[in-house]
């Protein structure tokens, strides 16, 4: 594996250029001119000292930004975990419709997860690659036994692999009741399906038919400081119960039927169940949101995962879920979207979302896309940004022409699309190689804080603040099975869009806040389909069809 000994190398000129280009697609001219003067001031003052402290930190932290990032993005956040922080991930629909089927599914998921855990312990997972480059596998060891611990001002993270004695149990929750279930026999082997089903039938079901009137798990959905205050009070009376949950390998949530949510599809209902449980009248009380892994076993074949984001990124969770699907012999389903994927890649998909947003709002969206840094030891993510000047030109040309005489022909549109895709692909490679703008700027900001130095003025400009307010928050989680991830918007007027590109179809999960009058998931989905069809027409009708595959 590559050790990122050049991960945070000083590249001020490149960062400033990236910043200028990102703003050029968003800001009025007077704002750009004013900000450029401040950028010059930033480039000439203070950064040398900031990079010195960053280099020094690397002598005792391999990728020094990762601990900073975990603190800043997760542990210091006081926002409740459901929706905005914890993603929900849906399995393909399974074929059962009664309690026996639900118990059978719960036992199979638990057993498959435990087999995967043993593979991690024994270093049996296949090495993942991006092209010919090896990816860091370290996040997998964070999946099992890990829990976020509430604390005032800043939470803590308790990693399972760091415990002196490896955990040998998991937790089952039903109707807000909590049960400790053994995972292995006396020889350390994973319990059989019959043994696991017997544990659930004999220990869990008879004692959980009535909803718990005082479900402790619901407080894990609270504001972090409120939960921290209650947590400290529970230490005296419930220490062993808390420790049992925190030390468990994972939580298995056996849910009741979701009611009182109208106007949604079964897939929407499944996503809501995985994302937050559907409220306390449904299953939100039947969760422990601090736990890294929660397996959701719903009624009528709807299952999924809710995961606490601090220790892991989505691909590790998706790989675990793929393994479970393979163990349960689940085949992929089909999507309503059918396109020719040899003519598209993630850049093409990103441009379609830019076009959909522009159709609705007639402005360019400040866009976040996740870039993996797993080429580096302990690497997490950076940000791939849109719009670019090239994407602005393409989306404007597609939408703004008043009539057919003014609208560019398909060959011209194809060239615009090609340049926009190439620009996006170039920045994607830059970000995944550790040369993205956002984490570099974050490092400067946090280094200034470490040194008690004045924050460079760039961080207080309107241009920077606007650039950090995202209208689109996007991520790609590809899988073979129909596994869809969803997460909440990063701001009230944001669209959260996670997509899964497969060989013959793309699956999108789109989330918006109902309280925002200017956003609509359903309208965005319609315009996204419209945009993909229009882009497909442009590609088909142009004289030269480039292949966008990476």
From TrEMBL:
Coiled coil: none annotated. Belongs to the carnitine/choline acetyltransferase family. Gene3D superfamilies: Choline/Carnitine o-acyltransferase, domain 2. Signal peptide: none annotated. GO terms for cellular component: peroxisome. Keywords: Acyltransferase, Transferase. This is Carn_acyltransf domain-containing protein. Pfam families: Carn_acyltransf (PF00755). It comes from Anisakis simplex. One of its GO terms (molecular function) is carnitine O-acetyltransferase activity. It comes from the Eukaryota. Residues 65-329, 347-529 form the Choline/carnitine acyltransferase domain. The active site is at residue 309. GO terms for biological process: carnitine metabolic process, CoA-linked.
């Amino acid at each position: 594996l590559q050790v990122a000994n050049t991960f945070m190398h000083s590249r001020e000129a490149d960062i400033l250029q990236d910043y200028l280009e990102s703003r050029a697609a968003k800001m009025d001219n007077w704002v750009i001119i004013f900000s450029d003067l401040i950028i010059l001031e930033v480039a000439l003052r203070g950064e040398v000292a900031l990079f010195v402290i960053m280099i020094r930190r690397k002598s005792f932290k391999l990728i020094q930004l990762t601990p900073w990032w975990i603190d800043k993005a997760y542990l210091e956040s006081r926002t409740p975990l459901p929706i905005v922080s914890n993603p929900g991930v849906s399995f393909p629909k399974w074929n059962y419709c009664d309690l026996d089927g639900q118990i059978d599914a719960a036992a199979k998921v638990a057993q498959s997860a435990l087999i995967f855990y043993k593979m991690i312990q024994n270093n049996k997972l296949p090495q993942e690659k991006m092209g010919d480059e090896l990816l860091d596998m370290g996040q997998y060891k964070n999946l099992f036994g890990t829990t976020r611990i509430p604390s005032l001002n800043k939470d803590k993270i308790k990693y399972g692999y760091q415990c002196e004695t490896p955990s040998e149990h998991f937790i089952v929750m039903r109707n807000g009741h909590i049960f400790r279930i053994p995972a292995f026999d006396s020889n350390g082997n994973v319990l059989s399906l019959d043994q696991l089903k017997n544990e659930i039938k004999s220990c869990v079901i008879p004692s959980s038919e009535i909803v718990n009137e005082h479900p402790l798990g619901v407080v894990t959905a609270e504001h972090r400081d409120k939960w921290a205050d209650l947590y400290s009070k529970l230490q005296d009376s419930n220490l062993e119960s808390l420790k049992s949950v925190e030390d468990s390998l994972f939580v298995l949530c056996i849910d009741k039927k979701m009611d009182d949510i109208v106007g949604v599809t079964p897939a929407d209902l499944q996503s809501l169940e995985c994302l937050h449980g559907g409220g306390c009248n449904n299953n939100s009380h039947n969760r422990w949101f601090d736990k890294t892994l929660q397996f959701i076993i719903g009624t009528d074949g709807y299952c999924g995962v809710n995961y606490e984001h601090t220790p892991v990124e989505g691909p590790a969770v998706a790989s675990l879920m793929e393994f479970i699907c393979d163990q349960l012999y689940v085949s992929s389903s089909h999507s309503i979207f059918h396109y020719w994927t040899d003519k598209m890649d993630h850049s093409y998909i990103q441009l379609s979302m830019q076009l959909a947003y522009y159709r609705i709002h007639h402005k360019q969206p400040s866009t976040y896309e996740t870039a993996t840094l797993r080429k580096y030891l302990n690497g997490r993510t950076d940000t791939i940004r849109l719009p670019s000047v090239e994407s602005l030109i393409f989306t404007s040309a597609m939408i703004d022409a008043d009539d057919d005489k003014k609208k560019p022909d398909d060959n011209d549109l194809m060239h615009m699309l090609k340049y926009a895709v190439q620009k996006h692909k170039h920045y994607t490679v830059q970000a995944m190689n550790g040369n993205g703008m956002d984490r570099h700027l974050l490092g400067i900001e946090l280094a200034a804080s470490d040194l008690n130095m004045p924050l460079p003025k760039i961080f207080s400009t309107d241009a920077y603040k606007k650039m950090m307010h995202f209208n689109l928050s996007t991520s790609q989680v590809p899988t073979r099975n129909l596994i869809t991830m969803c997460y909440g918007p990063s701001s009230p007027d944001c669209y959260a869009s996670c997509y899964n590109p497969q060989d013959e179809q793309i699956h999108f999960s789109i989330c918006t806040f109902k309280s925002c009058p200017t956003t609509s998931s359903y309208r965005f989905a319609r315009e996204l389909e419209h945009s993909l069809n229009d882009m497909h027409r442009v590609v088909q009708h142009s004289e030269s069809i480039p292949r966008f595959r990476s």
